[in-house]
Structures are given as C-alpha cells and as structure tokens.
Amino acid sequence: MSQADPNKPRGGASRVNVSRARSQARRCVMQALYQWQLTGQTYSEILAQFIERDEYQTADKSYFSELLNGAIEHQPTLAAQVGEFADRPWEQLDPIERAVLLLGMYELLHRLDVPYRVIVNEGVELTKQFGATDGYKYINALLDRAARALRATECAQRSSR
Q1: 27, 137, 140, 143: least surrounded by Cβ within 10 Å?
Q2: Best CA proximity match to 32, nearest among 62, 65, 57, 54
Q3: Which letter, b or e, does each residue of 50-72 get, where b requires 16 or more Cβ atoms within 10 Å of its Cβ?
Q4: Contact, 124 vs 139, CB < 8 A?
Q5: Which domain holds residue 40?
Q6: Is residue 2 part of a domain?
Q7: Is residue 6 part of a domain?
C-alpha cells in the first residue's frame, strides 16, 4: 500500500496554489508597470530585476512574463481603451492606477479564460494595498464598466444565475 505524498496538493489545493501564484504574478506586474512608467526601462531590464526579488519566486513566472510584456507592448491600445471608460485623461491618473488599469485591461481583452470578477477583484485589492486611500473605488467602477462592455456575454450569464 502506497502512502500519499505529503508535499502533493490534495483536492482543491492545487487550484488554490495556482490562484495564489497568479495573484503574486499580478502584484509583481503592477509593481513592474509602475517602475516602467517612472524609469522607462525595457521589459528585459525590469524582468532581470524582478527575477532577483523574493516575491517573484512564488509568482507564476510565465503569467508574469505574459502580463508584463503584453501590457507594455499594447500600452497605447490599452490606455485608449481605459479612456473610453474613464472620467479623466490617462495622463491625469495616478501611476499606480495606470499600472493596475493596464494590467486589468490587458486581462479583460486578452485572457478570456480569467473570469472578469477575478480581474476586477484583483485590481481592487492591488489598489487598496498600493494606491491612494479611495483609489480602489475608482478602479472597481472603471474595471466593472469595462467588463460589462468588453465581456457583455459573460456578465449577462453571470447576472442571470
């Protein structure tokens, strides 16, 4: 009779671990996008710095790379998309808010496998932790409006349950 491996996740534990690793990746990406805005460093330069950080070690590294590279590469399009739902110009948004919105908008548009509620919630939590006192309310409202427009079918299915 074989014994269960105590290091192997049981049941839903692997899903929780994936979720935590993705949350950590988003946190690192938000910080990296903030740094990118302030320094103008390249994706490669920022990645080289983040590889050295402790918090990067517990992040989903491929997800981090995809989100960071995608947000930087598509920044003009993502910023324009945010502008459709914002009440002020992109340049007037706080750099933390811009980083969270780049991340959230990228996921809404390019990661259809991630439920919109997860994207909105993660954006809110990041803003609560790093942003201005009530910045999370703005992020919540903006990402929710964007989700309702960009993922109307998913939102309608969710609300009809």
Answers
A1: 137
A2: 65
A3: beeeeebeebbbebbbbbbbbbb
A4: yes
A5: 14-159
A6: no
A7: no
User: For residues 18 and 58, what is the distance between their CA atoms, to the nearest angstrom?
Assistant: 10
Contact 132, 100 (CB under 8 A): no
When divided into structural domains, the chain yields a total of 1
Q: Are 23 and 33 in contact (CB under 8 A)?
A: no
- Which two tokens mark 86? 């914002």
Question: Whose CA is closest to 120, among 91, 151, 95, 89?
Answer: 151
pLDDT tens track for 15-57? 668 899 999 999 999 999 999 999 999 999 999 999 999 999 9
For residue 154, give the CATH number of its domain.
1.10.940.10
Alpha-carbon distance 17 to 11, whole Å? Answer: 11
Task: Using the predicted structure, report yes or no on whether residue 4 has a pLDDT greater than 90.
Answer: no
* Single pTM value for the model: 0.88
Segment 99-156, tens digit of pLDDT: 999 999 999 999 999 999 999 999 999 999 999 999 999 999 999 999 999 999 988 8
Residue 4 counted as domain residue: no
